[in-house]
Specification:
Strand order of the largest sheet: 1-2
Structural class: mainly alpha
CATH architecture of one domain: Orthogonal Bundle
Strand content: 5-15%
Number of helices: 7
Number of strands: 2
Largest sheet: 2 strands, antiparallel
Distance between the termini: 33 Å
Radius of gyration: 17 Å
Helix content: 40-55%
CATH topology of one domain: Arc Repressor Mutant, subunit A
CATH superfamily of one domain: Winged helix-like DNA-binding domain superfamily/Winged helix DNA-binding domain
Order of helices and strands: HHHEEHHHH
Length: 141
């Protein structure tokens, strides 16, 4: 089946694990996040490392260690999480620039640019704390 909207697996892992960590309220280890989300532990560990490097998570080593938010959930947007993995989202340029569009004008009538702008606006308005009340499943693990 074709899908017009796609988020990379790494970005999806980042968003889902950040919501899990936020909702749980305690340090979580990669294996726990893997069990909850269904993503592979090794891929989660790689993404968590990127989120630590971006300053969104803190990592504590050892048997009682794990990952926790570096800032309050109310200050972290989904856009920050997405951009920590994918890089800065440019909402002002075509997602698929090509010479034909440069000479004829955008073949999709700037639909791609509008879609990116809407996505960026949505992601920048949603904070991790928006999902905490609905995150009871994570607390039960």
């Amino acid at each position: 089946m074709s899908n017009i909207f796609h988020i990379s697996e790494a970005a999806s892992i980042a968003i889902h694990t950040m919501v899990c960590i936020s909702g749980c309220g305690i340090r979580m280890q990669a294996y726990e996040l893997s069990r909850i989300t269904g993503f592979s532990k090794s891929h989660i560990a790689k993404v968590l490392g990127m989120l630590v490097k971006a300053g969104l998570l803190e990592s504590v080593r050892g048997p009682l260690g794990g990952f926790q938010l570096a800032r309050p959930a109310s200050t972290i947007t989904l856009l920050e999480v997405y951009e920590a993995i994918e890089g800065k989202l440019d909402a002002d340029s075509c997602p698929q620039p090509c010479p034909l569009c440069e000479s004829l004008g955008c073949l999709t009538g700037e639909l791609g640019v509008r879609f990116i702008q809407d996505f960026k606006n949505y992601m920048s308005r949603r904070k991790l704390s928006d999902f905490q009340a609905n995150n009871l499943m994570v607390k039960s693990f």
